[in-house]
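Example for tutorial group B:
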């Protein structure tokens, strides 16, 4: 579980589609002053552009006087990427030098400053418009991909996107400022501070982002559907019994 509050912007060092395990791995370097890996352990969950991934290797610079030998100049870590993740997200399009949003899994004693983010991407969306508004930046997105072979379309994403609701874009918790269901797009606004802290602000029209809708909306929909269909079924049953001789 994550909050959607980006802790660090990392840089892709390598996307290896044929690593030693026979799968795909992603290596990310961090700024020399980064504290992201201070208490990290192998197997920990780290959200990379909003995708929950497992750390399979950790590399930290050695502290002065900690022994002989020189450690890496910058901290870094490696994660594995499953084929399903490559189909549902834009991680496969990353290249060396790409900036990525990073967040460690939330702890029980952490203040929930964003919203509940699972790190389970629902779709990708394309940036179709970027316009300044004072010192803020408004970005418009159109959902483009909901995974190959899922049978789902754009409306299956937009049904959970509501005005003033939450959405996670590349792992960043943002408030939806406009929605146009007919034309199939929604907008968010990045204040000046956010623009400096997330990789999303570095993207341009035509780039894609990972989208995770508010999971609470999904639970609410399923609960209401069960209630309504259940009530409908009970009503039909009452009518049937009433009509019976």
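The residue assignment follows.
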């Amino acid at each position: 579980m994550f909050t959607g509050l980006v802790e660090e912007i990392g840089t892709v060092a390598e996307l290896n589609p044929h690593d030693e395990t026979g799968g795909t791995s992603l290596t990310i370097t961090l700024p020399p002053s980064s504290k992201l890996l201070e208490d990290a352990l192998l197997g920990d969950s780290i959200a990379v552009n909003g995708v929950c991934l497992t750390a399979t290797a950790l590399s930290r610079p050695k502290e002065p006087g900690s022994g002989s030998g020189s450690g890496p100049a910058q901290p870094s870590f490696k994660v594995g990427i499953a084929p399903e993740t490559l189909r549902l997200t834009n991680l496969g399009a990353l290249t060396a030098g790409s900036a990525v949003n990073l967040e460690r899994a939330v702890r029980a004693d952490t203040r929930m400053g964003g919203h509940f983010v699972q790190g389970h991407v629902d779709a990708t969306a394309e940036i179709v418009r970027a316009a300044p508004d004072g010192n803020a930046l408004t970005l418009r997105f159109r959902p483009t991909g909901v995974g190959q072979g899922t049978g789902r379309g754009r409306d299956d994403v937009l049904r959970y996107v509501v005005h003033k609701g939450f959405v996670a874009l590349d792992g960043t918790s943002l408030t939806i400022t406009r929605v146009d269901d007919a034309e199939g797009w929604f907008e968010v606004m990045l204040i000046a501070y956010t623009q400096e802290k997330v990789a999303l602000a570095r993207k341009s029209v035509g780039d894609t982002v990972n989208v995770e809708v508010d999971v609470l909306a999904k639970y609410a929909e399923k609960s209401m559907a069960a209630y309504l269909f259940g009530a409908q079924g009970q009503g039909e049953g009452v009518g049937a019994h009433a009509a019976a001789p």
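The two ends are 56 Å apart (CA to CA). Compare this with the pattern of hydrophobic and polar residues in the output above.
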